[in-house]
User: What shape does this take?
Amino acid sequence: MSTLPATAIVREVGLRDGLQSIQTILPTAQKIEWIQQAYAAGQREIEVGSFVPPKLMPQLADTWDVLAFAKTLPGLTASVLIPNLKGAERALEGDADLMVLPLSASHAHSLANLRKTPDEVVQELARIRAARDASGKKTLIEGGVGTAFGCTLQGEVKVDEVLRLMQALLDAGADRVSLADTVGYADPHSVSVLVEKALRIAGNKLCCGHFHDTRGLALANAYATLSLGIQRFDASLAGIGGCPHAPGASGNAATEDLAFMLEASGVKTGIDIPKLLALRQQVAGWLTGEQTNGTLWRAGLPKNFKGALHG
Ligand SMILES: [Zn+2]
Assistant: This one.
């Protein structure tokens, strides 16, 4: 039996990955309330938005203001998604702790979603690294390798190509890399195979697993990744989100379900799950008419639960 890590981080991406793929535009005040409550529940890493042109994504047009608020919370790692150098310049200006540049290992998905080939994204990362170094800022750069387990447009994505691009991102100056099942094609076995190979390339620079629950396997995939020693996972409160290029997709792993799985398995997250469930109810109330996911909220914590803060 493998030993699980003692601790893990659940990085909240609901405010970015979740909100970008639903109709409702959440007012800035509610996003700030969400961040405040997530912080109060013990979350310390939050992706607050994306520096994409507001015309393309009006849901995230207030990322600058949301980031400014997040920066006031001590010890919070506030990250943003950036599509290109221009977005990176905003992230540096706003003092983001981390900027995530997504790369799609599927060439078809990359062209449809980012209008660039994967190798052009690698070149962009090198420019972003140069800009970061010139700025003197401490903002970390994460290269997020998406559609790493398959793609709705292209079908198969070869493991060798995923690994080649991950290596290329590191060579271009990424501080760290992550793997994303953007469209929900992964299963625990394919995850184990890829993560094991990726660890040989990236070592502890492989920092995060990002799983969508399209086919109900997000938690199983996170567990397979955890078993190999990865200690950070992206998740969306209430499992909101999806992907415009993944028909029928449900959102990310639900934050509350993932935190529960980790704590129940003895992996400390620092998250107060009842507080998180209360926040889930509040956010779901703001998103009436939108699909929410996850299961813990239906039945609540089991009576024998011995997670953090409740032992
Ligand atoms: Zn995603």
